[in-house]
């Protein structure tokens, strides 16, 4: 069984989603199925079939979350330090072509969200940054072509 690195914040978010699915969504779907059943003939009851489909998707997501939580290797980023980029680091980089600054936190695959600045440890940018320090330049091969970044700051928060 493989373990996957995950920040404590990402682990908490998965646990909260699992709790919501079990305590809120599951009873709501069961109620919807009961109401649809009361309408009579199930073979042509669209509400019943929709509720059963929702139930299947909800249970699949619950199983998926339980698996991810069980295989999580939770790392408390606040206890990490150093000047080298590693898992959990918040890295401020500047694009050497456009002079745009970006801040990325390197997180586990299951909690990555580029819109919030969290990039997966297995992404091309993360792989290029790992092991580097402030002031280093990195080349990243992206689907849109090569990019050059300079590391301005490495911090763990």
TrEMBL record:
It comes from the Bacteria. Keywords: DNA-binding, Elongation factor, Protein biosynthesis, Transcription, Transcription regulation. Residues 83-156 form the Transcription elongation factor GreA/GreB C-terminal domain. Residues 5-74 form the Transcription elongation factor GreA/GreB N-terminal domain. One of its GO terms (molecular function) is RNA polymerase binding. GO terms for biological process: DNA-templated transcription elongation; regulation of DNA-templated transcription elongation. Belongs to the GreA/GreB family. Necessary for efficient RNA polymerase transcription elongation past template-encoded arresting sites. The arresting sites in DNA have the property of trapping a certain fraction of elongating RNA polymerases that pass through, resulting in locked ternary complexes. Cleavage of the nascent transcript by cleavage factors such as GreA or GreB allows the resumption of elongation from the new 3'terminus. GreA releases sequences of 2 to 3 nucleotides. PANTHER family: TRANSCRIPTION ELONGATION FACTOR GREA. NCBIfam families: greA (TIGR01462), PRK00226.1-2 (NF001261), PRK00226.1-4 (NF001263), PRK00226.1-5 (NF001264). This is Transcription elongation factor GreA. It comes from Tepidicaulis marinus. The lineage of its organism: Bacteria, Pseudomonadati, Pseudomonadota, Alphaproteobacteria, Hyphomicrobiales. The gene is greA.
């Amino acid at each position: 069984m493989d373990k996957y690195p995950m920040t404590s914040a990402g682990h908490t978010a998965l646990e909260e989603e699992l709790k919501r699915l079990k305590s809120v969504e599951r009873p709501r779907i069961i109620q919807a199925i009961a109401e649809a059943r009361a309408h009579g003939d199930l073979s042509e009851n669209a509400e019943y079939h929709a509720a059963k489909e929702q139930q299947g998707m909800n249970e699949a997501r619950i199983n998926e979350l339980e698996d991810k939580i069980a295989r999580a290797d939770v790392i408390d980023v606040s206890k990490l330090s150093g000047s080298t980029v590693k898992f959990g680091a918040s890295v401020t980089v500047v694009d050497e072509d456009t002079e745009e600054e970006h801040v990325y936190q390197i997180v586990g695959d299951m909690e990555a969200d580029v819109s919030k600045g969290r990039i997966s440890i297995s992404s091309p940018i993360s792989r290029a940054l790992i092991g580097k320090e402030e002031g280093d330049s990195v080349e990243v091969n992206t689907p849109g072509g090569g990019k050059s970044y300079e590391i301005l700051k490495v911090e763990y928060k």
